């Protein structure tokens, strides 16, 4: 500007004239607000913007032996694997070329291919970050077991293990530390809810001080113990009287007194009256003895005896030694 005005003005004088006349003058007061809002968005912020360096900075290579690298197909200098996620992603751009005679449709199509390839690269890197954050490679190689033994933590119950499995899809949205904090907070929440229910139970029973709760719990424990002992005693009495009660359906029928304990159980399970069982038993044993003597059997089994009942009774008589196995 000083060169355009002429040699009579120095650059410093030109700047002072502009500031005094246009910025601090009437024109500046009318056009320039007192506070200028910052409408610029920093896309290079380290927290994960589109141009954040954290998205392009490579991760440090895995600290694994050469044999383990060969087992995984891992190349530490490139931080790549022989078989990556979506191995054929490069085919989207391998055949692309820039030609001066391309029309707008062809250019947009090539841009779409490049955009698809970039998305696949981001997904590939995201999966690597998740595997690195959750130590999936040491877990695959069996190294995490030694680290868990060195760092003792509270014992995780079976319910918590099942809950962790249900929450596993959240791994892709949260870092390892965030997920562990979330899981521990859920554990604290369950403890607090149980404590609140316990205090509410104390309040319902008229207890307003913690000193009274110990006496209440001791009395409740004694009460439950007496109730448990009473239930055990009643169950023992029930077992002693249970045999007759078990056969209540057939004990008043004729022929019940002729049966042994095992035969009573059989008739009760088959819902068969003692008289009919004795009849079938007599016929089967008689036929068995006649066959052993070489006499042809002419007796017929009753019509109410189907194949299932006949098989059950034959097996029972064979196990009890009334007839031999070849006859059954």
UniProtKB/TrEMBL annotation:
Residues 1-26 form the SANT domain. GO terms for molecular function: chromatin binding; transcription coactivator activity. It comes from the Eukaryota. InterPro entries: Ada2b_C, Homeodomain-like_sf, SANT_dom, TADA2A_B-like_dom, WH-like_DNA-bd_sf. Residues 213-243 are annotated as: Disordered. One of its GO terms (biological process) is chromatin remodeling. SUPFAM superfamilies: Homeodomain-like. This is SANT domain-containing protein. It comes from Limosa lapponica baueri.
């Amino acid at each position: 500007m000083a060169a355009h005005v002429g040699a009579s003005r120095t650059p410093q004088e030109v700047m002072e004239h502009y500031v005094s006349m246009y910025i601090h003058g009437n024109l500046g007061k009318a056009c320039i607000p007192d506070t200028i809002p910052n409408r610029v968005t920093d896309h290079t912020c380290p927290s994960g913007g589109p141009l954040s360096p954290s998205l392009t900075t490579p991760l440090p290579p895995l600290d694994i032996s050469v044999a383990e690298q060969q087992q995984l197909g891992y190349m530490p200098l490139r931080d790549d694997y022989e078989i990556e996620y979506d191995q054929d992603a490069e085919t989207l751009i391998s055949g692309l070329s820039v030609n001066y005679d391309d029309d707008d449709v062809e250019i947009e199509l090539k841009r779409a291919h490049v955009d698809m390839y970039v998305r696949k690269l981001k997904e590939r890197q995201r999966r690597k970050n998740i595997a690195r954050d959750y130590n999936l490679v040491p877990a695959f190689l069996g190294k995490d077991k030694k680290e868990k033994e060195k760092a003792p933590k509270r014992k995780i119950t079976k319910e918590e293990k099942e809950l962790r499995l249900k929450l596993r899809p959240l791994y892709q949205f949260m870092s390892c530390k965030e997920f562990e904090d979330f899981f521990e907070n859920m554990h604290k929440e369950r403890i607090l809810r149980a404590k609140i229910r316990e205090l509410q139970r104390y309040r319902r029973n008229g207890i307003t001080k913690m000193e009274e709760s110990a006496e209440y719990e001791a009395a409740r424990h004694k009460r439950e113990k007496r109730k448990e002992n009473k239930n055990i005693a009643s169950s023992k009495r029930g077992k002693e009287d249970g045999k007759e009660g078990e056969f209540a359906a057939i004990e008043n029928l004729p022929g019940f007194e002729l049966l042994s304990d095992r035969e009573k159980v059989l008739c009760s399970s088959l819902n068969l009256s003692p008289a009919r069982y004795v009849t079938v038993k007599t016929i089967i044993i008689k036929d068995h003895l006649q066959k052993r003597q070489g006499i042809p059997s002419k007796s017929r089994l009753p019509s109410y005896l189907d194949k299932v009942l006949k098989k059950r009774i034959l097996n029972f008589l064979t196990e009890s030694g009334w007839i031999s196995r070849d006859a059954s």
